[in-house]
Write a structure and sequence with these properties.
The complex is a heterodimer of chains A (267) and B (337). Chain A has 267 residues and is α/β, with parallel strands linked by helices. Chain A has helices spanning 42-49, 72-75, 94-99, 114-126, 142-155, 172-189, 200-206, 224-227, 230-237, and strands spanning 4-13, 16-26, 31-36, 57-62, 65-66, 79-82, 160-164, 192-196, 209-214, 217-222, 239-245, 252-259. In chain A, the strands form three sheets. In chain A, strands 6-7-8-3-9-10 form a six-stranded mixed β-sheet, with helices on both faces. In chain A, strands 2-1-4-5 form a four-stranded antiparallel β-sheet, covered by helices on one side. Chain A starts with a strand and ends in an 8-residue tail after the last strand. Chain B is globular and about 65 Å long. The chains are: A alpha/beta (267), B mainly alpha (337).
Amino acid sequence: MVQIYTENLHIGYGERTIVEDLTVQIPENRITAIIGANGCGKSTLLKAMTRIIAAQSGSVIIDGKRITEIKTKELAKKMAILPQSPECPAGLTVGELVSYGRYPYQKGFGHLTQKDRDVIHWALEVTGVSAFKNHPVDALSGGQRQRVWIALALAQETDVIFLDEPTTYLDIAHQLEVLELLKRLNDEQQRTIVMVLHDINQAARFCDYIIALKNGRIVKAGTCEDVIQADVLREVFHIEAVIGTDPLTGKPLCTTYNLIKGETAYV
Amino acid sequence: MMATSLLKKQRRIILLLVLLILLTGLTGLSIGSASLSYAQTLLALIGHGNPMDEFVIFDIRLPRLLITLLSGMALAASGAILQNLSRNDLADPGVIGINSGAGVAVAVYFLFAPVNHDSFTYILPIAAFIGAFITACLIYGFSYTKNAALEPVRFILVGVGFSLALSGLMIVIISSSDKQKVNFIASWLAGSIWGDGWPFILAVLPWLVVLIPFTLYKAQSLNLLSLHDTTSIGLGLPIQKERLILLAAAVGLAASSVSVTGSISFIGLMAPHLAKALVGPRSQLYIPIAVLIGGWLLMTADLIGHNIVPPDGIPAGIIVSLIGAPYFIYLFFRQKT
């Protein structure tokens, strides 16, 4: 069980501030979505929480320790991150790529123990990509590839997995497939999942907790019923949204929306 | 799990390459201005040949074969590291200015230092090494930016810039000196394997004995470095530290090789690439093969160059370039599509 929260986090590039004085707690064993307009700082927040970029001030705390005080290899046993458009060299096979997930547990040479092999095997099974083990990653379809990258994160055996827009570039069926896989991992293994999502209905359907950002500040953080509200969406996205109930899941659903008259989305 | 078929394939290819190297080596020992039969060569090798054959083999041909083999290996390992670091199949120690740096140092030393014929051959590789090393440090210094991570692409571009600038400097230095000295430098630049005695082997060997196993030890780091930065940090790799260490290893390997063979390009480009085409891009699999291919390529190139136009031959670097340049162009166009 891992506790993660941020304390007065400031993130920026040079003079430009992206995220300002942000304090938020990530609920344990839950799925959390970070939503917001383009450029609101949601990816930046995700990167700062996973030490990909350094915060200017404030801190990210995991298990009572600042992440800057933990060795990067140790941290990799607690949290995994899947970037938005991951790349790997041409010709690398699925099995080889997923085996790299064992790096935090290895010493030099990269020799795999029986335990490593078992974990890799399990990660390939649970994501449904075992059949492609010996196929090059670049020969797979977008949906298969995304499941392979999730398998890589699983091979790290971390309690927390961060994902930056895991459904981008996928068609709607494969988007659902990826989100259901994440939901299952959360249900069956209590993994804490934090992801940046563009689609608010997907966030409402799959996530227990939603953080809505605007200009690097939190507008609202809470359950999907709290956040997927007309007034919140008006402030975050500058839209006039009609909120209904998803007949399949009973979750809030943005059925249709308009831009607010006299304003543009890009102010 | 770990694609055991690939592992078996790797073993088979390694065995094949070792046999190829032995066969080429045996041929290399036999042919030349005093041709021997394979039987004579083998007898001489086990100490039962006639003294004249033994002299030719042990004092002339064997050291030259070994130095080309070792240098080719070092260049291949260096190229493999640089390609993983930069995530670019076109990286090569020759392309990023390490050769030119060594070249300028050799030219300066050769033209301006008092030449003492006894110590000359031993100081020249040291000069080349220092030149290569200073160049690498300068490239690193210029591609370093505060606040930001060392960008491999920036490193390569600065390296290419340095390579061109240093080549220009070399022309300036050469044009102001007398003809005889220019000849030596020109042949050094063409990669003429001039350091072909046992002492040079002893000078190069320690670098390889340390750095090639080190490269393999770092195979998993090299694997992760060939992914996205975010992915490799997320997997727990301290990328800045690992990049710096591996860069130093690549420079050490290239500099030790260049210092005895002269400037040789394309081995570091071709060998890793051919190996990746055979067994894929995982470092544990392809680097040993790349190292063997590199050694064999340079050995073969020198064998051809040395025997094709007696008595002086064509520098190995030129033979390598004749094969390497079209390969480079092929790669370049393939990468663009």
